[in-house]
Amino acid sequence: MANYIHVPPGSPEVPKLDVTVQDQEEQRCRDGALSLLRHLRPHWDPREVTLQLFTDGITNKLIACYVGDTMEDVVLVRIYGNKTELLVDRDEEVKSFRVLQAHGCAPQLYCTFNNGLCYEFIQGEALDPQHVCNPAIFRLIARQLAKIHAIHAHNGWIPKSNLWLKMGKYFSLIPTGFADENINKRFLSEIPSPQLLQEEMTWMKELLSSLGSPVVLCHNDLLCKNIIYNEKQGDVQFIDYEYSGYNYLAYDIGNHFNEFAGVSDVDYSLYPDRELQGQWLRSYLEAYKEYKGFGSDVTEKEVETLFIQVNQFALPPSQVYPVLRGCWPRVFIHGSQRLGTLQALIMSCLLGILGTELGSSATSAQMRRFCTP
Q: Name one GO biological process term (predicted).
């Protein structure tokens, strides 16, 4: 069994450029981006290049580079956050990107550089919670996710979920305390002991591993803003593959269902009801069976089985989300009613990393956001 991703033979090589883009100062950031564009778009006049900041988070800074006003040809420059390699396997991210690109599920990856990568801009609109409950759109999402899950990227090996490996990695990063007295007090009073959390992890692994959900190539972070809808073409594409890898099929769907509630202004009354889930899961199963060459007939029993699996992997919103509201990243450790303690642990782990490892990359305002109940 294996949990690594196998890039298919014949996939185009991705050049690695010896360029480091400094993102702390605007001019140095521009100079670094232009160095990349000299390789990727040598015909562009540097004086005419526009740089537009799309996102400026802790995990990444995303900058769009283009000339003219139409944005017909846009190069996206994604700069990794400082020390985020502690949490994200960047080599696996690039492999996932290449595999998805080879199967028509990702934009073109132009290059990697010392602290980031460059890729093609996808035309369309990033979705919000009100979009993902629209039947015309959620059927497209279900079909696209089924297409990814049907990808064979394990070179003949039986795929193995990397969920438990990732959880173990995050456990190894647990801080023992914080310099900030208020944060440390909350950490000691609200976060259960590592021993208890290890017991919870063992229990959860036994429960979720026994559900029979297939292990497939998953996106693992299917929040609304990672779904781009092109109304003109009538399709959707997923972006951001930092957490992609082998995982349980039902996890990926359950994680997405949680995102119906939103991120900033969370409303778990928007979590999809039984009827909507039934329609979504039937659309997914029809597409999945079609992509796997099994026809497209789906029985009520198949829908019911997947419904049970998905909701075992979904977060218990009333117990967990008040603790995690606004927290980064969307770590793929969802499942069962006793998972709240593990989610709280991951929050404390990330707070420790952000507070002690990232230094100036984590601003005081961002830290306050993570710590506000």
A: glycerophospholipid biosynthetic process
